[in-house]
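User: I'm curious whether this sequence folds into something compact or stays loose and floppy. Could you predict its structure so I can see for myself?
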Amino acid sequence: MSNETSTMTQQIVIYKGINCEVIYNYGNGNYEIVFGEQILLVSDSDIQIIN
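Assistant: Here's the prediction. I'll summarize afterward.
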């Protein structure tokens, strides 16, 4: 059993004109997003954060 806590917040960003879900925020300007059937590593300069 882990002592870590996590929050389930869904962050949506726009990447190449498509809404994508953030699955991990590295905290250094890099994000893992779901883009179609792929998981991509993108930087904050590649995306538009909408929530």
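Summary: The two ends are 32 Å apart (CA to CA). The chain has a mean pLDDT of 87.
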